[in-house]
Amino acid sequence: MVVLLDGWWLAALLLLEMAFGLVWNREGLRLLRRPRFWTFLLTAVALGPFLIGRPDVVVGPFHLSREGLAVGLEMAGRAFGLTLAFSLGLGSLSLSDVVALFDRLGLRGLGFATALAVNLLGALREMAAVTWQTIRLRGGMRRPGLALRLFLITTIANTLHYGDAVVSAATVRAFDPNGGRAASLPLRRADLWLAALLIGCGGVLLALAG
Amino acid sequence: MSSYTVRDWVTIGLFGALWGAVEMTLGSYLHVIFPPQANTFLTGVVMGGIGVAVALTGRHFVPNRGSVFFIGVVTALVKLLSPGGARLGPFVAILVESALMEAILWLARAPRRWAFVVGGALAVGWNLPHKFVMMRVLYGGDVVQVYTKMLQEGSRMLGLDPSAALLILAVLLTIRLAVGGVAGWGAWGLGGAVARRLGRREPAPGEVVR
To answer: B122: domain range?
Structure first.
């Protein structure tokens, strides 16, 4: 929708997104506290008056274009809308939702792999750090090329060893990546509101197009 | 999917976690110490090269079709679910890189060194168009006008012919293709070295390892 709208309609959609975030998902609005995000948006606003359209306003030493400013604002608004929508969508996403979604799609193994990866991330990082320190303390850095090779081989070999233990645990629990009953996806009140909102906006767009 | 065993999914999860760990530690570190502009020249190339090496090494241990793509999906989700990782750009980049590697491996049918090299080169090579594609998606069609004008103004200020920009882009692309090719070549050797270290023979394509 952000892609299709422009001008005041885009501004209205941004306000709607913000309101949705304030009511249902404040976590998703954390993006607005990042200076990097604002730098990214303001770059578009700042470049527009210099690079687009014919200069028709003089501000100090600068010759600016009002048309460029409007285009820059619209570009920034579009980027703002898309990024905020992505952030709001993900703010409410949890690992269990992802696993349940894959389960519903018949990709139970992929959900299992994702959950495994998220949960083992800390252990793998620690394992890699210990391997690196061991190589360093044994004087491995005198030959950096060999040290890097040893580090990579040892880290991957240790990771695969760790995997053996996970496979045994999963087998003992009779986990079957190709079978079982699909878990139900919980439908929350926010989902219903979002669905209603999307249907409403879709209707407005169709009416505008007609 | 039925050809994937529990061990395959565990291995996919582990390699996804490894790639994710690299993205979240080294990636965050590089993003902090270098300005965003360095992403075009350094951060993206380094992260792409390491990611390609990890994913293709994983293919050695899960020689089923689609395994590299699934490793990419797991990595993208790990990054997405990590604190501060809910960003559209890296998510899309990881998915496209893994899809490109998978496409080449699919064309090669059996695991071969040339497929690893070409797949790796294309995956890291994607880094360059990725930036432009994402800008086009986020800012809309007007960003093309901004780029064109910036190119013209920049060439005029530096006293260069605008066609020099194409040469610069070609050089940047060649560097990426070379880094990706080296990463693919390295992954082929690394996978074999780890398999030997673990006393495993490399499984034949399509073989189910339990």
So the answer is: 6-197
Is residue B203 situated within a structural domain?
no
Query: How far are the Cα atoms of A129, A194, B146, B170, B172 from residue B167, in angstroms, in the given order?
Result: 41, 48, 20, 5, 9
Here the CATH number for the domain that contains residue B50 is: 1.10.1760
Q: To which H or E segment does residue B99 belong?
A: helix B88-108
The beta-carbon neighbor of A113 closest among B2, B12, B142 is B12
Q: Specify which of A119-123, B26-30, B97-101, B141-145 reaches the highest per-range mean pLDDT.
A: B97-101
Residues in chain A closer than 8 A to B5 (CB atoms): 177
Residue in chain B nearest A111 by alpha carbon: B74
Task: Give yes or no for a contact between A2 and A202, defined as CB atoms under 8 angstroms apart.
Answer: no
Cα–Cα distance, A174 to B193 (Å, whole number): 32
Residues 37-56 of B with CB under 8 A from A: none
Task: Tell me if B111 is assigned to some domain.
Answer: yes
Whether the CB of A87 is below 8 Å from some CB of chain B: the reply is: yes
Q: What is residue B37's DSSP assignment?
A: G
Kindly state whether residue B33 falls inside one of the protein's structural domains.
yes
- Tens digit of each residue's pLDDT (9 = 90 or more) over A73-97: 888 888 888 888 888 877 777 888 8
Residue B204 lies in a domain: no
Pair type for strands A57-59 and A62-64: antiparallel
B57 CB neighbour count, 10 Å cutoff: 27
Q: What is the pLDDT of residues B163-182, one digit of tens each?
A: 777 888 888 899 999 999 99
Alpha carbon of B97 to those of A29, A164, B112, B113: distances in Å? Answer: 29, 28, 18, 18
